[in-house]
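Working notes for the structural subgroup meeting. M.R. asked for a predicted model of this chain before we commit to crystallization trials. I am recording the input and output together here so anyone reviewing the notebook later can reproduce the run.

Input as submitted:
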Amino acid sequence: MSILTEWGITPQQLTELLEENPSLRGMLLGYVAELKLKEIVTSISHVSYTVKYDDHNRKKKGDLYIIYRDKAFDLESKSLQSSMIKWDENKKRWTGKAQVDGSDRRTVSLPDGSTLQTTLLLRDEFDILAVNCYAFEGEWRFVFARNRDLPSSNYRLYSEEQRRFLIASLIPVSWPPEPPFYAELRALLDEMIDDGEGTNPLDLGSE
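Returned structure, recorded in token form:
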């Protein structure tokens, strides 16, 4: 039984609900993006394991954990802000910004010894950022970037040292992608492994 049958609504009624409630549409789009991302990951040869941890598990950051060529990586899935999407006629490309902060404010401890309350994600908190570009042209395409290559926060209330460890909440994205983003996840994974990145898979399930 489909959820539409269980709830007693039609596809048209669901479509109207999503059109009338942008926050609901955004939330559902985010979960669909995670599903599409998993489809991409599982289609890559030498991916031997994938798992999505509970959204409320604060010990496991990232939306999708994978093992590729015997190395473990965690991917953070994010979406574009629809209000910031533009078509650059001169460069013949789409541009926009991805919302990369967390859903809740929490206390974090930084390598400089300071602690602060923030929704920003941390340097090294996950391995790869995956941004779905569906909002550009209505196609399920993603771009991928290393955590370490993402821009740092420029929030003025944080010290310069603190900003080094905090990732910006809005990150520019384009299609076709430009550095630090890759169009192909496998190419990025291979490069990261060649650079000695990735963790021991035995650590993946530890608490």
